[in-house]
Amino acid sequence: GESVGLHLPTLSVQEGDNSIINCAYSNSASDYFIWYKQESGKGPQFIIDIRSNMDKRQGQRVTVLLNKTVKHLSLQIAATQPGDSAVYFCAENINNFNKFYFGSGTKLNVKP
Amino acid sequence: EPEVTQTPSHQVTQMGQEVILRCVPISNHLYFYWYRQILGQKVEFLVSFYNNEISEKSEIFDDQFSVERPDGSNFTLKIRSTKLEDSAMYFCASSRQGRDYGYTFGSGTRLTVV
To answer: A102: nearest CA in chain B?
Structure first.
């Protein structure tokens, strides 16, 4: 089956620094990816998405990079703030609106 | 901002009992989903629902599970005879355009089976 995994289960950064969260996926047929943020006691919250015909997409303070050659996805957060502390999941979709496959999650700790 | 609302936030039930988890999706959304997250594990797809029928389900979603949209606003997940391994956080989600822009998730119902 599809496999989505994360390299770093916990990431600690200083407030104001940039954060990079990584994700590996195994299914080359995946054509749509989303990064979700999950704060304690809440459901996953959409951050940014990217389609497989792109290699970079920017949002507000966030950038997602997609490297299809090595099946790698990353989320960059600029000027990380305490409010960014959460668990971040990547999720992949294969030309199918019905379901996403989620990764294991990376916990981001932002130190003031 | 529109929200997906789930009730209850926490449900404790005895093994073998039936539970119904309730969700109110965003009003103009057409696609509805249930996912679950066992403590410390990945978020897993259970079922998707569109046009008043199940469009896809995972191998987890066996005969003990059912979904229903009893009226124009609620979307429910029923577990007929709960098992200890059903203990998890259950998330309802909805979307207007299918997968695009992801889904809006509710805050979840923590189900504890004892």
So the answer is: B43
B10: closest chain A residue by CA = A41
Contact between A106 and A56 under an 8 Å Cβ cutoff? The reply is no
Residue B112 near residue B12, CB atoms below 8 Å: yes
Q: Give me the domains of chain B, ranges plus CATH numbers.
A: 5-99 (2.60.40.10)
- The rounded percent of chain B whose pLDDT value lies above 90 is 80
pLDDT at A37: 96
A52-79 tens-digit pLDDT: 999 999 999 999 999 999 999 999 999 9
B110 and chain A: CB distance < 8 Å anywhere?
A: no
Closest Cα to residue B71, out of B104, B23, B105? B23
Across the interface, whether the CB atoms of B106 and A44 are under 8 A apart is answered no
**Domains of chain A with CATH codes:** 4-96 (2.60.40.10)
Tell me how far apart the alpha carbons of residues A63 and A58 are, in angstroms, rounded to a whole number. 4
Q: Nearest Cβ partner of A49 from B58, B102, B104?
A: B102
pLDDT digit string, tens, across residues A24-53 = 987 889 999 999 999 988 899 999 999 999
> Looking at this protein, which amino acid is placed at residue A34?
I
User: Contact A91/B102, CB-based, under 8 Å?
Assistant: yes
Q: Do A99 and B101 touch (CB under 8 A)?
A: no
- Comparing CA positions, the residue from A11, A18, A9, A12 lying closest to residue A80 is A18
Q: Is B75 an interface residue toward A (CB < 8 Å)?
A: no
